[in-house]
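#struct-help
A.M.: can someone run this one for me? Single chain, 82 residues.
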Amino acid sequence: MALIEPFDMSGIVRDGRGVKHFTDLPASLVEMLRRSVDATPDAEALVELDGQRLTYRELWDRAARVAGGLDVSPGDRVKIKE
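D.P.: on it. Structure tokens below:
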């Protein structure tokens, strides 16, 4: 008898122990943001209460400017000091 799932289960598989796993997760936060930019560049990505609103395209552009000013290479770890 097939298990009835109440939600869309596309992109999810169960391993041998029955644990669910996503099959198409982005490899990194950067890849996740890039996918959002490509899919919906003008959708709101960030909204500050009583403040700025940024689209995915604007967020990508600002993040690229910050990243361009850092002296890091692929694989380097970066810490944000509090």
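A.M.: thanks! Strands lie at 12-14, 20-22, 44-47, 53-55.
D.P.: also worth noting: The chain has a mean pLDDT of 89.
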